Fold each of these.
Amino acid sequence: MFICFLLTLFLNCIIFIPTDVKSEQKTIFLQQEELKSYALTEWEQGYINWNKLDELLEQLQSEVSEPPKNATLGEGLQIIEEDSGVSLDRAAFTINFLEAFYKGEDSSIQVPKKTVYARVDKEMLKEITRKKLGSYTTFYNSTNKERSTNIMLSAKAMHGTVIFPGEVFSFNKTVGERTEKRGYKKAPVIVKGEFAEDIGGGICQVSSTLFNAVDLRGIQMIERFTHSRSVPYVPPGRDATVSWWGPDFSFKNLYNEPIVITARAAYGSLTVEVFSSETVEHFQDK
């Protein structure tokens, strides 16, 4: 309890010197007594309590970290550049902290940051949009505004998704929960063979169009369920029903290169395409 009290007191006493530039450093000021609170009490003076220091590192990480933003696709194959992020340089800060700790005096300690690069950059997107692997188009009634909205929202959420070799794509995780707050509307859905109204009605057309686009030799289907009755937008048996609390549609990338999905819904037409690099090839059996 005493250690927890000291930690709380210490964190409240940290003075952050704010910056507005990623590359600049923050600084914390520690008084001599605060530094001493990081010593192990059951040993002779001079041994660090590493558990307590880890708690400080986690606190600082939450203060300074900014996650990177991957490059993605805008309209069609237009590339929106990535943005790097920053993270706490834990090793460098630990050295700075130990120097101050063993000095035993009031100290200003730099909180070093390091750049975190985006996993997907514009150069990668350029490469993996060169070769079309698959494409499929379905049609819908654009005068049905609610259903059209749901189709367009889910297609937009999926557009630009990159799946690396060996990774599994999940429709539900990628598109997210379909809620009114996120703009989804009530529209007809099929429940146990009967039509009903529910939030997000129509997105099964998106998952079904995606299934037909990615039905390729280098794609392994992981999870796919068909509707309890035929649907009009794809041939019988070529659909993939999804529900946030129920079935998902997922598949694994068995190619040697990342693939990227594009999706466009407009004027009653939904097209999903799959691209990769010129050197893409199927590298393992299903």
Amino acid sequence: MYDVFPRPGLTCPEVPDILHFSSVDIDQARTALNRFYYPVAVGIPDDGEGFGLGIEVIQLGPLTVGQLSYASPMTLAVAEIDAYHVSLPMVGQMQARHAGHEIFADPSTAAVFGPGNPVYTMHDGNSAELAIKIERVALEQELARLLGRPIEGPIDLPPQIDVSSGPGHSWSRLVRLLHDEVAHPESLIYRPLIAEQLRGCVLSGLLLSVPHRHHDELTNPGTAGPPRAVRRAVDAIHDEPERPFTVGDLAAVAGMSVRSLQEGFRRHLGCPPMAYLQQERLRRAHESLRRADPVRVTVAAIAHRWGFAHLGRFASAYRTRFGVPPSETLRSSG
């Protein structure tokens, strides 16, 4: 079975492409992997009993997250990887060779591959992994946005990530959440606004979770940006609060690093930039609810319009800000 489709009725390039695939044919498997990942040579041991591969993939522009399920032992070989790639076993183990490293990965340890080198992996039968591909230019541009300056790539990500605890575990849970949404046709992941926000979180989260030569610069406190630069970010928020801004986007608007933007907001406005954005969105949602026709409009529609991905968290934040649930405001508008 081979099923690849964008969500019906949606044509924006940020709308996810989805693939559900299972096959006992190596050529079909190779075609599917080439479609979403890389040109790959697929093999099975000489004494292998047949072949079986299952793939569930969601692609958000430069980010691809897929679950690969190996019914039989299998090898995958890529002549030269052209992206940043993380393989996170969910069941079983995998071995890999890449850039002079011998890597053993399991559910507590992810394998990491960078651009410009071949990759060879070996997978046990009855195993499964999450395969996360991030296009090189996307991750390097995200790092440049976070730093507020150009960088020279590639980024020196480590060959392995501990995903059993700490930031690595948090990042792996975010990726799992993204993949789990594939199974729900009504998921907010199919809304371009939400998809773009989640994609940005995965990219920036990886950069903040693992050691590399820019990590200290990303995480150490920065010098506060000047009021005029902070005002540019504030104006952007007021002009388009519904936009899926990341802190990196706002830093680019202001013309400074993320750390300087965060310190500038703290010093001049008393809160982080994303908290300021949330408060502006709450204010706009409140105005919309007060003016809406409760017969024609729902709380969920207004929350989504103003960039809130999680309805429960929106309702909680709204009650904290205005003292009543959003449904009460909507009812009173009638």
